[in-house]
Amino acid sequence: MHKDNLMLKKNYKKLWLMAVLALLTSLTSVTSWAQAPSMDQYLGQKLAQDSTVTVGKLSNGLTYYIKPNAKPAKKVELRLVLKAGSILENDHQQGLAHFMEHMEFNGLKHYPKNELVDYLQKIGVRFGADLNANTGWDRTYYMLPIPTDNPENLEKGFQILGDWASGALISSAEVNEERHVILEELRMRDLNAQTRMLRKFLPELLNGSRYAYRMSGGKDSIVASADPQLIRDFYHDWYRPDLMAVIAVGDITVNQAKALIKQYFGQITAPSNERQRTYYHVQAYTNKKALVVTDSESTSYQYALLYPARKRQVEKTVGDFRKSLIKSIFSQSMNRKFRDLAATSNPPFANAQLSLSGTVGAVTLEDEGMELDVTPVGNLNRSVRAAIGALLNVRQYGFTKEEINTVKKMYLPYYENNYRERNDLTSASFTDGYADAFMKNTPLIGIANEYGYVKQLLPTITDKDINDYAKTVFITPEHYFVMVTGPKKGKLSLPTEDELLQLTDAAFVQKTKRDTAEKAAIELLSQEPTTGKVVAQSQDTALSTVTYTLSNGIKVTVKSTDFFKDQVLFSGIKYGGSNQYGVADKSNIAFLGNVIGAMGYGSFTPTKLNDFLSGVQASVGVGLTGLADQVNGRSSVKDLKTLLQLTYLKLTSPRKDTALLQGFLSKVEARLPLLKADPGNAFKDSLTKVMYGHNPLAPMVIPSQEDMRNIDVDRIIQIYKTEFNNADGFHFSLLAM
Predict the structure, then answer these.
(1) Residues 504 and 579 placed together within one structural domain of the fold
(2) Three-state DSSP class for 31?
(3) β-bridge mates for residue 82, sequence order
(4) pLDDT in tens, 106-137
(5) Which residue in 41, 46, 141, 259 has its CB near the most CB atoms, within 10 A?
(6) What pTM was estimated for this model as a whole?
(7) The domain that contains 183 carries what CATH number?
């Protein structure tokens, strides 16, 4: 353990008391990393590989990833990854990749019929919660956690993966039995408005790509009548070792895992007359195309602008990693700008987000395409102009130094925390990353190497780097796809497809003005609180805790734990809660947290508070249950002082800002008709009223217009101060290393 951490562990109780009494504690952390011999040489180096993971191949082409990991003890996470999914179905097989996934649980060589699920449940593996699988366009993924308190379980686990790979029975009787299950899944899928709209717009969005016509559920008609032999054909063609990876992470040695992989997978052979595994793409748009898609049960309006698809770049060198950091900082900076616009007193949109990979990147293995998504408020044209105007503003004027530094400050603490906690991560947290590396042929860098690269490269990234990148991204697209989705009827006036193209083109030729920069705060608290005293102390040897009673009535219980190396967990509770308030305050109680959060604390608006806390690992939440007032927070050890200052700020200084409140309320009111149009929400609302006998204090599912009118900001602030300004009665608990 690092010397600084040892000192922090030894002294944290003292630091806690000092912080509670005066909030004057100051913690520092010093780390170092060897400097590269020269930047040009460094950037040209190949990315280092994660030395904690053993990656290899069997002679038949099967890939494996093995990582011994101590947490949790006596458990191994096993995965089988198949680089094949619905994209490889023939026309008459649509839906059978997913059908095949189901058949892996309905009869295997060593576990006929339902014996697999029966066996796994006996050893404590729950079907659905633990044991599961999914089928996508390019991938089929099987997940199997195995408890190893009985050594026999581990070998059985690899045997099951081996059976999935080459021992599925696929009997006609079981196929016909399973049809009904799958058809019910498909029926439930099509009850979803978003899925129905997805089927309409995906062919245009993906520019006629094969991906648009190979959704994993397939066609009901094929699932209902397909000959079982077609499923066997799919299994025979694509479940083969060169397209498979086995992942083993957990309480296992490398030699153990290797031996079991060789035993259960080494004898699998590729099929004769092996079919070529084709990798499909989304071609770049060659014209401008617009689409308006509606559904009577849709609960939101959405505008999406997609740039032409391009080939995804794979990181291979340190220079590539630096470029990815620049892209990430740029993306975070842009989305932060959108966040600030959405939080104004007269927001042009409810939300906007830029993605550099977009829907195309989420669907395909090798392509990506920049995408702007906007949730409009009131007027679609205004929302689109504001979002695209923000892009143009950055293209012309760039981000300010303060904007970029605010984002950059987040990176090093994030990676530093990951590095410190790397040996405390659970086995399941690694498996998806290894599966993704197999699917996309990307290197496994590992947490330690990533931390080293960020420490070296982050200081070299300048404002010019970010703003130069913005100019290459924010070109006015010659070709694009734009769409609007939403309900058939609603407050928003939907354009025709021609009008949608016109308003998008018009947004790109607008003139923008340079943003005015505001001075950032330098202190969280405008005035430090008055120092109190410890008036009593007690110890619980059974729980290894110490409880301090302070002069203001607060009790603080402190416990040392080594579960995480760099984490402080903090909570407080006192008797109170929402049940003290009657019908007259129903709306005020229901919206208390949202209203206070929308206005901010002290001199900070919500966005300014987020900016101030950039790079700080400290967060605090305040709220009411039926019977209690609660505070919950967490931080790194070095940010303990900020955690306590933030707690003090939120408990004592709710901020009144009627302009920001009105902005928040306008977004809520725009959503209400859409919530009522959703059958699921409408059912929950009606059911709740019936279950509570139409009691006026029944929980609020969908607020009415009257509920909105009953929100009284002054009363909300009064309730908040009554519950949280008075410290007497609070009992806080703190757990730290």
Answers:
(1) no
(2) coil
(3) 140, 244
(4) 999 999 988 999 999 999 998 888 899 999 99
(5) 141
(6) 0.87
(7) 3.30.830.10
